[in-house]
Design brief:
- The protein has helices at about 25-35, 55-70, 90-100, 110-125, 140-150, 155-170, 185-200, 215-225, 230-240, 255-270, 280-285, 285-295, 295-310, 320-335, 335-340, 345-350, 370-375, 385-395, 415-420, 430-445, 450-455, 460-475, 485-495, 505-525, 540-545, 550, 560-580, 590-600, 610-620, 625-630, 650-660, 680-690, and strands at about 45-50, 75-80, 175-180, 205-210, 245, 635-640, 645-650.
- By secondary structure, the chain is mostly helical.
- It has four domains: about 20-245, 3-Layer(aba) Sandwich (Rossmann fold), CATH 3.40.50; about 255-420, no CATH class; about 430-530; about 570-704, no CATH class.
- The strands form two sheets. It has a five-stranded parallel sheet with strand order 2-3-4-1-5, with helices on both faces. A two-stranded antiparallel ribbon has the order 6-7.
- β3, α7 (about 185-200) and β4 (about 205-210) form a beta-alpha-beta unit.
- α7 packs across α8 and α21 (about 450-455) crosses α23 (about 485-495).
- The longest helix has 20 residues, at about 560-580.
- The radius of gyration is 42 Å and the shape is elongated.
- The protein starts with about 25 loop residues before the first helix and ends in a 14-residue tail after the last helix.
Length: about 700
């Protein structure tokens, strides 16, 4: 994986070479206006208006550079940062310090020194009384009264302001004070700033350029009025202070998608991940969401940086780049919904990767079952439509759409969901790259690699591994013919497979399905003319049934592997025969009858008659009782919740095949059965009670 990358920075640009949005055209128009409108004897308040992240700070930098570099000069630029202070006095000091810093001239320049002193004198006079200055209109008498009390033995405010103004005019210099992010201010701080600019700072030749988000600023003004002003009133109030508002043009949709495409390409290159053919369509399907929510360079870069951060912990191929992007976009639009995805997992994901079936999650009124609507309702009403569109693209089956089959590593697939939420390979999961590496090693002849990989894993993790192996092999990641090396690999790994139940299946049962597919693939491709010698003598009979099902159920005409089939059947019958001979002391298990049934049903197997004859001889010779044989055909059922097993059924047809017709049970049994008692003695009673009794007295056989 590549480790070289450039982290996105939110710092504003300072030169036109870094301009990716052609904003310089807009800047040139603003600068031209400033040059013509701002005069040495006037004071104008301008505003630069745009949403959060639209590039206001960058534009201020470009304006400053352009004015300072313009021919003829005559400009001094200073910055005033009102939100950096914590008190009224601090605000005034910062304000006047900004003006003083814009006055040019060396320390021995008498005119410049005089102007600076005069402005400093104003600060001394007005600092104690700032809060008495009204926000808008009226209160002239109160204002005069206040200063008559405050300015004992001092020059009047008007005289000091006039002296400071004349000193600035003597400099014949135009000053522009840049005031950025005034929408960051609290309501009380905002009022103080407006008081300062409206009444204290209108010096000739000094103009102001305020940068803010108009929607946010108007809300703050309304809050500052204690709710007495409306949004319309707030706009009118700003109009009294600001003469020329400049509105930043929005980014064109084509620019958004160009920047997004370039950004994703860079992220993919930096993290080593890749995109697939369908990724472009999935992003295009949420184009309207992208246009509405990523309309500023900052919002776009923030989402792209989040994608890079979320991809970084994963090896290439472990997650989908587009899913990571869509999740980052969802977080950007509605953090509340994104943060609750984990709680809604059961209704969002496919339980089986690649399912094509739509899923309905409608509930009746009053139901406590969570639905996608409950999740979407967590979002702000203004973005719910976009949130629903994103949820539908990320989890199509959750909104009733048909889930188009795609890469297995999508978040919609249950076994991949958690790695997107926790930003890592979570407990109970294994990276795809690890599983693939084991398979590659086995393909090259190191068949123990897979056994080592699964050894010591819990049942949940083993089940996940087997599911991944099945996905990778079925997806032709290893070519069309893979069974000839995968099946021996699985035989080698069998002793390490857990038998602990997980949900409806144990890992061993899933392992059997995988083994059967591998054997079938091998027989169709490489082992057409015969199978290599495989050791099965040490296998448990159920492992033989599970792993060699393809050859146990194949007819005579398709038996180039007949020798292996006979070895499997011999092994099954030997085990069943020994179990029957052991009677009630034999190992208690519920698959002996199934082994005998499978042997009897194997198509085209001439040895079946020989096996049946041997069982009948055992019964006729009373080596094995009819009750013992019947007990092996009593099945059990295991409750998923409790794990308890109970007697469930009697396979009478399987019993009929093996029992001699001339042997009968001497008596019926109609008494109680302890269903939880799995002993052979209790199974005998269960079989007697469940078997059909025909008129001729034979138990289990119909009279001819």
């Amino acid at each position: 994986m590549s480790t070289s990358f450039t982290v996105w920075s939110d710092d504003p640009i300072s030169d036109s070479d870094s301009d990716k949005l052609d904003i310089e055209i807009f800047v040139d128009a603003l600068v031209d206006h400033l040059r013509h409108a701002s005069q040495a004897n006037s004071s104008i308040v301008y505003s630069l208006v745009g949403p959060w992240g639209s590039g206001k700070s960058s534009i201020l930098n470009l304006i400053s550079n352009s004015l300072m570099e313009s021919q003829g000069g005559g400009w001094s630029i200073a910055r005033f940062t009102p939100w950096a202070t914590s008190s009224t006095d601090g605000l005034l000091q910062e304000f006047f310090a900004s003006i003083i810093s814009a006055i040019p001239g060396s320390s021995d320049d008498a005119r410049a020194a005089r102007a600076k002193n005069k402005i400093a004198k104003l600060l001394e006079i007005c600092s104690p009384g700032l809060k008495a200055i009204p926000v808008a209109g009226g209160a002239a008498s109160e204002y005069a009264k206040f200063f008559s009390e405050q300015l004992t033995e001092r020059h009047s405010w008007e005289r000091e302001f006039s002296d400071a103004s004349n000193s600035l005019a003597d400099l014949n210099r135009r000053v522009l004070i840049l005031v950025d992010d005034i929408d960051r201010l609290h309501s009380s701080e905002l009022l103080e700033l407006m008081r300062v600019i409206r009444l204290l700072g209108r010096f000739p030749g000094v103009s102001y350029l305020l940068a803010y988000d108009e929607e946010v600023l108007c809300r703050n003004v309304v809050a500052a009025s204690g709710g007495q002003m409306s949004i319309t009133d707030a706009r009118r109030y700003l109009e009294k202070i600001i003469q020329y508002p400049f509105y930043i043009p929005p980014i064109q949709q084509s620019q958004i998608f160009d920047l997004l495409s370039d950004g994703l390409d860079a992220v993919v290159e930096q993290t080593g991940h890749s995109v697939v053919e369908d990724d472009g369509r999935r992003i295009s399907s949420v184009a309207r969401v992208i246009s509405r929510s990523l309309g500023t360079i900052r919002s776009l870069n923030r989402v792209l940086e989040q994608v890079r951060i979320d991809l970084k912990p994963h090896e290439p191929g472990e997650v989908s780049v587009v899913d990571v992007f869509l999740l980052a976009l969802l977080r950007h639009i509605s953090p509340e919904v994104h943060d609750k995805l984990r709680e809604f997992k059961s209704i969002l994901v496919n339980s089986t990767a690649g399912t094509r079936q739509p899923v309905s999650f409608a509930t009746t009124p009053g139901s406590n079952v969570s639905t996608v609507d409950n999740l979407v309702d967590l979002a702000d009403p203004g973005v719910r439509a976009d949130v629903r569109l994103l949820i539908g693209q990320i989890f199509p089956q959750a909104v009733g759409q048909i889930s188009v089959e795609g890469s297995a590593n999508l978040i919609r697939n249950a076994q991949y969901f958690d790695r997107y939420i926790y930003k890592k390979i979570p407990e109970g999961d294994v990276s795809d790259s690890s599983v693939r590496s084991w398979l590659r090693a086995c393909e090259m002849g190191e068949k123990s690699a897979f056994r080592v990989g699964i050894s010591g894993r819990d049942s949940t993790t083993q089940s996940v591994i087997f599911s991944k192996v099945q996905q990778f092999l079925q997806a032709s990641d290893f070519g069309e013919a893979w069974g000839h090396w995968a099946f021996p690999m699985l035989l080698e790994a069998l002793p390490a497979v857990s038998d602990q139940r997980r949900g409806f299946f144990t890992p061993r049962e899933l392992f059997y399905q995988l083994a059967d597919e591998a054997l079938h693939n091998a027989l169709e491709n490489v082992w057409r003319s015969g199978m290599p010698p495989l050791c099965i003598e040490d296998l448990d009979p159920r492992d033989i049934v599970g792993m060699f099902n393809s050859i146990l159920t194949t007819g005579e005409e398709m038996r180039p592997w007949g020798g292996m089939q006979k070895r499997c059947l011999d092994r099954l019958f030997f085990y069943a025969e020994e179990n029957l001979k052991a009677g009630d002391s034999a190992e208690r298990r519920s698959d002996i009858g199934y082994f005998l049934f499978l042997i009897a049903e194997s198509p085209g197997v001439t040895e079946v008659a020989e096996y049946a004859s041997r069982v009948r001889e055992l019964i006729i010779s009373e080596t094995v009782s009819l009750d013992t044989l019947a007990s092996r055909f009593v099945g059990t059922r295991t409750e998923m919740s409790s794990g308890e097993s109970t007697l469930s059924s009697f396979n009478e047809s399987g019993f009929r095949h093996w029992a001699p017709e001339e042997i009968t049970w001497p008596e019926d049994y109609n008494g109680p059965i302890q269903s939880g008692d799995l002993s052979w003695e209790n199974r005998k009673l269960f079989a007697r009670r469940e078997a059909t009794r025909y008129p001729n007295g034979f138990l289990g056989f119909e009279a001819e």
